[in-house]
Amino acid sequence: MSSLASRAKDLRSSPNKWVAPAVILLGLLYPFLEEPLSTLPLIGDFMPSTGTVVVMIAFTMMAVGLNIVVGYCGLLDLGYVAFYAVGAYTAGWLASQHFEQVTFHFGSSVDNDQVGIHVTMWIVLIAAGLLTMLAGIVIGLPTLRLRGDYLAIVTLGFGEIIPQVVRNGDSFGGFNLTNGTFGIAPIDSVGFPVLSSIAFFPENFQTSDNRERWYYLIAFLLLLFTIFCSVRLRDSRLGRAWIAIREDETAAAAMGVPLMKTKTWAYALGAFFGGVAGAYYASFKSGAFPADFYFNISVFLLCMVILGGMGSIWGVTVGGMILAYLNFSGLSTIGSKIQDAGLNFDPTKYQFGIYGIIIVLMMLFRPTGLIPERRHKVEFEEGVHDTPFYDVQTEGSLTDRDRGND
Amino acid sequence: MSDTRARVLRTLRNPKLVNGIGLGLVALVGVWLVVNFVKGPQEFVNVALDGLTRGSIYGVVALGYTLVYGILQLINFAHGDVFSLSGLVASTMLLSVLGLTGSSSNLAVIGGIVITLAITIPLFAVVNATIERVAYRPLRHAPRLTPLITAVGMSFIVSNISLALYGVDFESGSELIPQGAAFSIGEINVTWKLVFALAIITPALVALSWFVGYTRQGKAMRAVSQDTEASAMMGINVNRTISVTFFIAGSLAAVAGLVFLLEYNLRYDTGFELGLIAFTAAVLGGIGNLAGAVLGALLIGFVQSFNEGLTWFAPGGDWTRSIVFGILIAVLVFRPQGLLGEQTPEGA
Questions:
Q1: Higher pLDDT residue, B268 or A107?
Q2: Is the residue at B347 inside a domain?
Q3: CATH number of the domain bearing residue B245
Q4: Cβ–Cβ below 8 Å for B164 and A383
Q5: Is-contact A356 B154, C-beta < 8 A?
Q6: Is B12 in the A-facing interface, judged by CB distances under 8 Å?
Q7: What are the strands, taking DSSP E only, across chain B?
Q8: How far apart are CA A330 and CA A348, in angstroms?
Q9: H helix intervals, A39-147
Q10: DSSP-assigned beta bridge partners for residue A117
C-alpha cells in the first residue's frame, strides 16, 4: 500500500532538465540546419522546408490549445476548426483591403493610401485570440451543460455551421462580411515597421529576403509562449479544477468547483490559442479561404492530441509535429518514394484513413498516448468513477476498481 | 453589481422564459409554413412529398444510431459511412453484376433490388457487428470519451475503404426507376421515387418493430438498454445482445444505402453528412426512442425540403447544414430529452 504522499510525488513530473533547452536551441537553429540536413543521404529528402515547419508549428499550436479543452478538462470538442476559422477571418477583417468602405491604418507597414483596415499584425494576433475566446464562450454557454457525447456532437455542429456561414457570408443584407467562396486575400504581413529603421529587422516579412526564416522565428516563439501558458495554466488553481472535472465531475462539484464557469474558461482559453494560430497562419499564407475549414481539420487536431497523449503538453507538441509533418510534407515524400519504387499507391489520398487508423490503434492499445501524462495514466490504470464494481460480462471477476491497492 | 448579475442569470434560467423562447421559435416556423402554403398550395404539397421521401431514408439511418445509442450510449459515427459503403456496394450489384440499365423492365429492376438486398443486408450486418467486436468491445470499460473517439476514427477508416474501392466519383441508380409521377391528384404528383422508397422502407420498419417488440432477442435488447447490469443478472447474454443490435443497425444501413442510391447519388463521403443529419433526427425525436427517430427524421426531411424547395423567404440549399445543426443545438438547449423523450439507462 502506497501512501498518498508518495503517490502525489510520483505524479509530479520531473523531466530531464537538459532536454527542453536542447530542443529549443535546435528548434531555433533549424532554418540554418535545414540546408545541410537536406543534403544528407537517405534522410535528406525527408527534411521539411522551413516554410513547411511554419505550417506545422501553427497546427501544433492549435493542438496545444485543443489539449486544454480535451486533455485537461475532458470535454470532447469536435469543432475546433471553427476557432481556427474565426482567427483567420479576424486577421482578414483587421489587416487587409477587405473593408474598402473605410481606410484605417494603425502601426501597419502597408502604404498609407491603401483602403481597408490595416492594423499591425501584432495587435491583430491578440485581437484574433480575444475574439475567438468570445466565440468559445458563446458556443460554450448553451452547450456545456450537456453530457459529454452530446457536447461532442454540438461542437461538431458549430464546426460545420461556422464554415458554412463564412462561405455564404458575402451578402448579409447586402453587407459583404466574408467575401464568400473567394475568401479574403491578401492579408497583411507580419513585420517590424518601427524597428526596421533602427536595425536589420525587416519592415515586412512577406517581401523580405528571409521571409520563411522570419515567419519561422516568430512562429517558434509563439509556440513556446503557448506551451509556457499551457504549463502555467495546468498548474494553476483553474487547471487543477479542470483536471478535477475530468476525473470526476460530481466529486469536483461537491468540492465546490463551479462547473459551468470552469468549463467555460477551458473553452475560452483553448479557443484563444486556436485563434492566434489561425490568424498567424492566415498572415503567413496571406489569405483566409473557406475551403480550408472543414471537419477533417478538427479530427486531424484531435488525432494530434490523442497520439501525443491527452493532457500531456510535451506529448501533444510531439504528436502535433509528427502528424503535421506527415500531413504537409512526409506523406507526399513517402508517396513519391513509393512511386519511384514502381508501386502505384498514393498515401496522401488516404491521409484521413491513416489518421483514423492511428486514432483507433492508439485508443485500443495505448490510450494514454506516446508521452503519457502521469496523472492521466493513473486514471486509466486504476479506473475512473464510472467503472462498475463488478464486471458483469465475465462472471466472477472483479474490476480493477475493487482490486485497487489503497 | 453582482446582485444585478444574479438577477439577470436567474431570469435567463427561468424555465418559463426558456420554454417561451422555444415555443416562439416553433410559432415563427409555423407562420412561415402557413404563408408558404397559402402562396402556393400545390407546390407546397409537392415539396412536402419530397420531404417525405428524404425523411423516410433519414429515418432508417437514424434508427441505426438510436438503437446503438440506446444500448451502449455511444454515438456510432461510423454508421453513416457504413451506410454509404453499402450504397456503393449496391451500385456494383445492380449496375455491374446484374447489369441493369434504364431500359431494363420493371420486373427485372424489382428482382434486382430483391437480390441486391439479399446480399447487402447480411453483408453489412456482419460488417457493422465486426466493427463493434474489433473497435468498441475492448473499450467497454474505458472512460466514456475513449469509445467515442474510436468511433470517429472508425468513421474515417470506413469512408477511406469506400474511397479506395470506388474513388471520388458519384454513383447513382436513379435511372433504374421510372421517372415522373406514379399517379397524380390534381396538381399533386406522387412520384415513383416516393413509391419505391416507401415500398422498400415500410417492410423494413415493420420487420424491425416486430423483432424488437415480439421476439425473445428483441426483449433482451430492450432489457439491456434499460439496465445492462440487471439484465446480465437475469441471465441475458449482454455481449450477444449488443452484437445483435449492431447486426440490425447494419442491415438498416444497407436498406437505406440502396434506397438512397435509387433516389439520389452517393459517394464515399456522402454518409458522413447524412449520418450527422440522421443523428440530429434521432436526438430530435428522443435518443433511444425508435418511434422518435422516425418522427424526428420525417421532420428533418420536411425541414430540408421546405428550405430548399419553397420560395417565400426560404434560405435555400446553401444553408441546409446550418439549419439542421441549428435545430440540433436548439433541441439540446430547449428540450434535451427530444420530442418523444429519450430511452437510455441514464435518462435525461
A1: B268
A2: no
A3: 1.10.3470
A4: no
A5: yes
A6: no
A7: 171-172, 181-185, 188-191, 265-266
A8: 9
A9: 50-67, 81-94, 121-143
A10: A104
Phi, then psi, of B228 in degrees rounded to 5: -60, -45
Distance of alpha carbon B264 from alpha carbon B278, whole angstroms? 16
Distance between CA atoms of A46 and A37, rounded to whole angstroms? 9
Per-residue confidence in pLDDT tens, chain A, 406 aa: 455 666 666 655 555 678 888 888 888 888 888 878 878 777 778 888 888 999 999 999 999 999 999 999 989 898 899 999 999 999 999 988 888 888 888 877 777 778 888 888 899 999 999 999 999 998 888 778 777 778 888 888 888 888 888 888 887 777 888 888 888 888 888 888 777 767 677 877 877 878 888 899 999 999 999 999 999 999 999 999 999 998 888 899 999 999 989 999 999 999 999 999 999 999 998 888 888 888 889 989 999 999 999 889 999 999 999 999 999 888 888 888 888 888 878 888 888 899 999 999 999 998 888 888 877 777 777 665 454 444 444 444 444 444 443 3
Query: Is B150 touching A (CB cutoff 8 A)?
Result: yes
- The residue of chain A with its CA nearest to that of B9 is A141
Question: Burial of A265 by CB count in 10 Å (0-12 exposed, 13-18 middle, 19+ buried)?
Answer: buried
Closest chain B CA to residue A248:
B143
**Residue corresponding to grid cell 524597428:** A195
Nearest to A305 by CA among A361, A257, A391, A370: A370
In-domain check, residue B221: yes
In a domain? residue B231: yes
- Among A363, A365, A403, the strongest candidate for a mutation testing the B interface, having the largest count of B CBs within 10 A, is A363
**Locus of grid cell 434499460:** B226
Chain B residue with the nearest C-alpha to that of A360? B150
Identify which of A188-197, B245-254, B327-336 has the greatest average pLDDT.
Answer: B245-254
Cβ–Cβ under 8 Å, residues B249 and B76: yes
ipTM for this model: 0.84
Residue A115 φ/ψ, nearest 5 degrees: -75, 170
CA-nearest of A100, A92, A96 to A178 is A92
Looking at the structure of chain B, the number of domains it has is: 1
Q: Taking the domain A48-342, which CATH number applies?
A: 1.10.3470
Q: Which residues pair with A116 in a beta bridge?
A: A103
- CB A92 within 8 Å of CB A289: no
How far, in Å, CA of B264 to CA of B91, rounded? 12
Look at residue B2 and tell me if it is in a domain. Answer: no
Q: Give the 3-state secondary structure of residue A391.
A: coil
Range of the domain at B63: 40-334
Nearby residues of A164 by Cβ (< 8 Å), 6 or more positions away: B318, B319, B321, B322
